[in-house]
Specification:
The protein is α+β, with helices and mostly antiparallel strands. It has helices at about 10-15, 20-35, 55-65, 90-95, 100-105, 145-155, 205-210, 280-290, 290-295, 340-365, 370-390, 395-400, 410-420, 430-450, and strands spanning about 45-50, 70-75, 110, 115-120, 125-130, 140, 160-165, 165-175, 175-185, 190-200, 215, 225-230, 245-250, 250-255, 260-270, 300-305, 310, 315-320, 320, 325, 335. About 35% of the residues lie in helices and about 25% in strands. The structure holds flavin-adenine dinucleotide (FAD). The site of flavin-adenine dinucleotide has 39 residues, from helix 3, strand 2, strand 8 and helix 10.
Length: about 450
C-alpha cells in the first residue's frame, strides 16, 4: 500500500469495518455536500474534473464502490449543453448506473429510430431500432440542462461530493499523488490533494491541453450552429421522437424533438461553407434557407432562445491514461455528432474505467499499465463509430445506405452500429455483416469510378 497521512479520507474510512458503516459514511458525506459542499474538499481518494455525463457517471460508480470522490464542475447546473439525442445502448447503461427509473419517469421523449434525408439526391431512409444483447429498442431525446442535472444529483445520492462553480485551474500528477488548484466561484485557486485524477472536462480536455496534446482532425468539425424552436413540425406515434438528419449542400442538419413542443435544430457545416462576419442568427437563418426541407419543417415555428455555436470540435487528446490518471468521454476524443454517439461514449467510458480504478485502490497501486485495457476498449468501441462517421461522408456508402431496398443484412448492421451495439461486444453475426458492408462499399466505389461519378468524401467536395 502507499504511504498515507493519518488524516486522509481513506485512512478515516479504513476504520469502518463493513458495508453498513461505509453506507452511513456515504450518507454523512452526502449531508455535507447538500449543506456546505466545499467542506473537507482538501483531500479525496479521487478528484473528478467535470460534472457532465462522463464525470457524473464516474463519480457515482466510484462512490458506490466506497471511494471518497469529489467532483468539480465549473458551471452551476442546470446549464445548457449541446448533445441531446441519445443512443439505445445508453438505456441498459442507465440501469447499471442506477438512473434508469428516474430517467424513465422524467418524461423525456423516447426515440425509437432515425430518419435520414439527402436533399440533393431526393432520397431518404428510416431506421427503427431493434433491441439487442447490449442495447434497447429506444433511447431518449433530452434537454441536457435537465438530463445532466439528474445525473449529477445521482452522483450525490451515491455518496460523491459535488462542487459546482468550481474550476480546476492547475494540475500536477506526482509520484505520491495528484495536486490541483481549484477556483471556487472565481476566487483564487485552493489546493486539493487526491490519490487519483479523472479528467472528464469534456472538449476542454484539461490535462491534454495543459500537459499533453489535443490534435484537431482535418476536414471535420469546423463549425456547428444550433437553436431550440417551439411549434416545429411533428411526426406522430412512435416516430415522434425519431431524430432526423438532413444532408444538404453545405453540411447537414439535425432535428431532435423533445417532449412537448420544443425541437432542437442544428447544422454542422462543411469547411468550405464556414463564413466569418455575419451574426450567428444570420448564419443560421442562411443555413436553414439553404435546406428547404428544414425550412418547411420550421414554417410557423418560433426560436425560443439564442443561436449557439461550436467550432473546431473534432480532435484526439493524449494522454488517455497515465500513472494515477484516466481521461473519459470528450476529454479523450470527439469526432462528429452525426450519429449522436457522444453521451453514450462519455458514460460508457466511465463505466469501463471504474473497475480498474477501484482495483488500483484495493492494491494501492496506480501505474498506467493498469488502465491499458480501458484505453484499448474505448479505442475499439469508438473506432467502429469513427469508421461509420467517415462512411457517412462517403458517396459510395451513401448509395448503399439510401438504396430503396438495401440487403436486410446491411441495413441490420448499420442500425446496430447506430444503436451503439458493437461498442462493447461484436458477435460473429455483426462482424460478418460489417464485413459485407465494407465489401459492398468497395464495389459501389469501383462502380462510381467507372461511371465517372465523385468518389471523394463529401468533406473534400
Ligand atoms: C455540435 C454538436 C452536437 C452534438 N450532438 C450530440 C447528440 O445529439 N448526442 C450525443 O450523444 N452527443 C452529441 N454531441 C456530443 C456531446 O455533446 C458530448 O460528447 C458529451 O457532452 C460528452 O460528455 P462529457 O461528460 O465527456 O463532457 P461534457 O458534457 O462537455 O462535460 C464536461 C463538463 O466539464 C466541465 N469542465 C470543463 N473544464 C473544467 C474545469 N477545468 N474544471 C471544472 N469543470 C470543468 C464543463 O463545464 C462540463 O460541464 C454533440 C457535440 C457537438 C459539438
Amino acid at each position: 500500500m502507499e504511504a498515507r497521512s493519518p488524516g486522509s479520507s481513506s485512512a478515516r474510512r479504513s476504520s469502518a469495518s463493513g458495508a453498513g458503516s461505509r453506507a452511513s459514511d456515504r450518507r454523512s458525506r452526502r449531508r455535507v455536500c447538500r449543506s456546505r459542499p466545499d467542506v473537507g474538499l482538501e483531500r479525496a481518494d479521487v478528484a473528478v474534473v467535470g460534472g457532465g455525463p462522463a464525470g457524473a457517471t464516474a463519480a457515482a460508480l466510484l462512490a458506490r464502490a466506497g471511494l471518497d470522490v469529489v467532483c468539480f464542475e465549473r458551471e452551476r447546473f442546470p446549464r445548457f449543453h449541446v448533445g441531446e439525442s441519445l443512443l439505445p445502448a445508453s438505456t441498459p447503461l442507465f440501469d447499471r448506473v442506477g438512473v434508469g427509473p428516474r430517467l424513465a419517469a422524467a418524461g423525456f421523449l423516447r426515440k425509437y429510430g432515425a430518419a435520414f434525408f439527402d436533399e440533393g439526391e431526393s432520397r431518404e431512409v428510416i431506421l427503427n431500432f431493434r433491441a439487442g444483447p447490449t442495447w434497447a429498442d429506444h433511447a431518449y431525446n433530452v434537454p441536457r440542462a435537465e438530463f445532466d442535472r439528474l445525473l449529477l444529483d445521482h452522483a450525490v445520492k451515491e455518496g460523491a461530493r459535488v462542487l459546482e462553480g468550481a474550476e480546476v485551474r492547475d494540475v500536477r500528477i506526482q509520484a505520491d499523488g495528484v495536486r490541483l488548484g481549484v477556483a471556487v466561484d472565481g476566487e483564487g485557486p485552493r489546493p486539493v490533494e487526491a490519490r487519483f485524477l479523472v479528467d472528464a472536462s469534456g472538449r476542454d480536455a484539461l490535462l491534454a491541453s495543459r500537459l499533453g496534446r489535443r490534435e484537431p482532425m482535418p476536414g471535420l468539425g469546423r463549425a456547428a450552429l444550433f437553436a431550440h424552436y417551439a411549434g416545429g413540425h411533428r411526426w406522430e406515434g412512435r416516430m415522434e421522437g425519431h431524430i432526423r438528419v438532413y444532408l444538404f449542400r453545405d453540411g447537414w442538419f439535425w432535428w431532435i424533438p423533445f417532449a412537448g413542443d420544443v425541437t432542437s435544430v442544428g447544422c454542422v457545416l462543411h469547411r468550405r461553407a464556414v463564413r466569418r462576419g455575419p451574426s450567428l442568427e444570420t448564419l443560421f437563418e442562411d443555413a436553414v434557407a439553404a435546406c428547404p426541407a428544414v425550412a418547411r419543417c420550421l414554417a410557423g415555428a418560433r426560436r425560443v432562445a439564442g443561436v449557439w455555436s461550436a467550432a473546431n470540435f473534432s480532435y484526439r487528446a493524449e494522454p488517455v491514461i497515465a500513472d494515477r490518471f484516466v481521461a473519459l468521454g470528450d476529454a479523450v476524443t470527439f469526432v462528429d455528432p452525426i450519429f449522436s454517439t457522444g453521451v453514450y461514449v462519455a458514460m460508457q467510458s466511465a463505466e469501463l474505467a471504474v473497475p480498474a480504478i477501484v482495483e488500483g485502490f484495493r492494491r494501492g497501486e496506480f501505474r498506467a499499465a493498469r488502465f491499458d485495457d480501458y484505453r484499448r476498449r474505448v479505442a475499439v468501441g469508438t473506432g467502429l463509430f469513427f469508421e461509420f462517421i467517415d462512411r457517412y461522408y462517403d458517396p459510395a456508402f451513401l448509395d448503399i445506405f439510401f438504396a430503396p431496398a438495401p440487403p436486410a443484412a446491411l441495413k441490420d448492421a448499420v442500425t446496430t452500429v447506430f444503436a451503439g451495439g458493437g461498442f462493447l461486444e461484436r458477435p460473429l453475426w455483426l462482424r460478418l455483416r460489417l464485413a459485407a458492408v465494407r465489401l459492398g462499399v468497395r464495389c459501389v466505389r469501383w462502380r462510381r469510378r467507372w461511371a465517372g461519378l465523385p468518389v471523394d468524401s463529401r468533406l473534400r467536395w
